[in-house]
Amino acid sequence: MEFRYLGNSGLKISEITYGNWLTHGSQVENEAALACVRAALDAGITTFDTADVYANTKAESVLGEALAGERRESLEIMTKVYFPTGPKGPNDTGLSRKHILESINGSLSRLGTDYVDVYQAHRFDVETPLEETMQAFADVVRQGKALYIGVSEWTADQLREGHALAKELGVQLISNQPQYSMLWRVIEPEVVPTSKELGISQVVWSPVAQGILTGKYLPGEPPPAGSRATDDKGGANMIGQFMNDDLLARVQNLKPIASDLDLTMAQLAVAWVLANDNVACAIVGASRPEQVTANAAASGVELSADVLQAIDDALGDVVVSDPGYTAQGMPKHRLS
Question: What is the pLDDT of residues 250-299, one digit of tens each?
Fold first, then answer.
C-alpha cells in the first residue's frame, strides 16, 4: 500500500481508503462488514471513511466495532456531518453550530474514539451562514475532537470561501470529497485547479462508478442478481444514471486495455483516478472481503499517457465533464 499527503498538511493517508456508504448497517450483515474491514487492514489500508447519515448512524457503529482493538495512532478515520440523522427533527440536519457540535459527539461515541482525523461537511448548507459553520468546525478542532477539516461536493467558489475562513480561524481545510471516475469528471475543469491553488486534496468516492466500471453490467441484459443495480435499499437509485446501453457498451471497450495491463477492470478504474495528482485517495467499498483485496492491488499502479488516451478513446462522449453538475447536485435547501 502506498500513501499520499492529504492536502497541504503533514497527514498521510492510504491511497486506497475503505468506505462504508451503502454497505455497513444496511446492505451488508455485520459479520461480512467486519470481514471486509479486516481484509482492508490486511491489505495495508489505514484510512477509513464513513458518515453519520450512513444507515442513519449504524454504519459508524459497525466501523467502530470493526476497528476496536486496533492501535488508534495507526489509523486515519474520517466522518461527515450534514444530512438528517436520528428522528430527523428541525435541528438534526445541516451545518448549524448546534448540529455540528452535537453530531461530532455522537460520531465519536459510535466510532469508539476520542477524535477523528478529518471531520467533513457532507454538503454545503445554504441556510446557515458559512461563518457560523466554519467557527463551529474550528471549535471542534480546538477541542481536540478532530485534527483537520474537509468538505464534500463543494463548488470551486465554495471551497475558496471556506478555505479563507478556515485560514482566518487558524484551522486547516485540507480535503474535498467528490464523486470522480472515468465516467464522471466534473471536478476537472474548476474544482481541481482551485484545490491545487489552495492546498486541498480530493478524497474521491465511486471511482468504479458504483460497479459500472467493473464491466459486469452488459448492454441489453438484465443486471446480475445481487448486484447494486438490483438493490432496493438505495443502490439501484444511485447507479441508475449510468444504466444505459450506449454507456455500458463503451465500458466494455475497456476490457482489452485492462487485460493488456494484467489488471481487472475495477483495478484499472481505481488506478485511473489515482493518476490525477490532486487525488489523495480513492474510496472503495465492498460487500465481500475479496473485493477489498482486489481493489487494494491498484495501489502503486502507474498508467502511461498512451493508456490514458486509450481509455478516453474507448469511452468517447459518454464521459460527463460539465462542472455545472457540482452546483446542480447541491441541496437547494436543508434536507429533512
Answer: 999 999 999 999 999 999 999 999 999 999 999 999 889 999 999 999 99
Query: What is the domain count for the chain?
Result: 1
Question: For 143-174, what is each residue's pLDDT tens digit?
Answer: 999 999 999 999 999 999 999 999 999 999 99
For the full predicted model, state whether its pTM sits above 0.85: yes
78 lies in some domain: yes
143 lies in which domain range?
10-328
Considering 5, 18, 54, 119, which one is annotated as catalytic? 54
| Environment class of 91 (CB within 10 Å of its CB; exposed 0-12, middle 13-18, buried 19+) | exposed
Residue 246 lies in a domain: yes
Give a yes or no: residue 184 inside a domain: yes
18 is catalytic: no
The low-confidence residues of the chain, meaning pLDDT below 50, are: none
Identify whether 336 is part of a domain: no
- CATH code, domain carrying 152: 3.20.20.100
